[in-house]
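Sample 3 of the quickstart, ligand magnesium ion:
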Amino acid sequence: MSTTPAVPAVPATPLLDVRDLRVEYRSRGRRTVAAVRSVDLQVAAGEVVALVGESGSGKSSAVRGIMQLIRPAGGEVRFDGQDLTTLGRKELRRARRDMQMVFQDPFSSLDPAMTVAEIIAEPLMVHTDQDRKQRRASVVEMLELVGLRREHADRYPHEFSGGQRQRIAIARALILRPRLVIADEAVSALDVSSQNQVLQLLQSLIAELGIACLFITHDLAVVRSIADRVAVMYLGRLVEQQRTEDLFDHPEHPYTQALLSAALVADPRVQRTRRRTRLEGELPDPANPPAGCVFSTRCPLAIDVCHEVAPPMRPVAGGGQAACHLVEPA
Ligand code: ADP
Ligand code: MG
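Result:
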């Protein structure tokens, strides 16, 4: 008799379940920018999902739509079964306790007028009734968890390096033991060695605490060690999703292949004989997207149908999905 239960590829009730998400920017006299156009994305409890795509592809807009920092133009964002798009301010505030964020810029995301202790304790002030002493104890515990010292508590953000500031941001994001952390380009502004350190720290803390993570980056190279799954975004749409090892082994979409070539070329330790797909030209204007497949104007493999018909996401071998007319469906 087997005691190992079968693990489904996509769990029945994901922690975060995003369906047909649309995020638009409207400004008077200008064309509406559809920054996110029909994105489906799931993150299971404890899972790390990377959302990858070049700058301008709509990743941060998707985050704003998920967090309800912008009300989506369409779609559902279920967190723990509850559709956040239907919640009022008060209910949202309660739901946000369990979804915390780490932002990119370590030099502007921390209030320069607050001490490190005040910054890290802020979520406790908003969401708990802990007293001063309890908050101080939690802050000291978090400082040690992220590799800083209790003496750092009463200093100000400008006294710290970029890597240390991201540790402070991580301490703030984790102090409530949320169920999901959304990290938007959390290591992108750092040099490579602090990038690796902060990445390792985030990875070990979320694993230890069982926290799920939506890890957003334009740099495919950094997701390999941290992500269980990778979703690739291009011009407001997802074009591919696979388990991380599968995506690196056999990227299906030509856009993913191009991103991966670029990431491998940039990595001097990696020597590959893999066919290189170079990414030419610029991301099209999202206010004026191409007909058919969003990638058709830059795709080296595009044929007539690609310029006419948008390919749907279809299953590929290995349990992932890709949206490309030329990919063999599973
Ligand atoms: P990414 O995070 O992947 O770099 P963004 O979500 O920041 O992408 O941007 C996606 C698109 O939306 C871009 O074309 C960007 O210019 C546009 N955009 C982002 N924020 C705004 C805004 N506040 N108003 C109008 N357009 C915006
Ligand atoms: Mg962004």
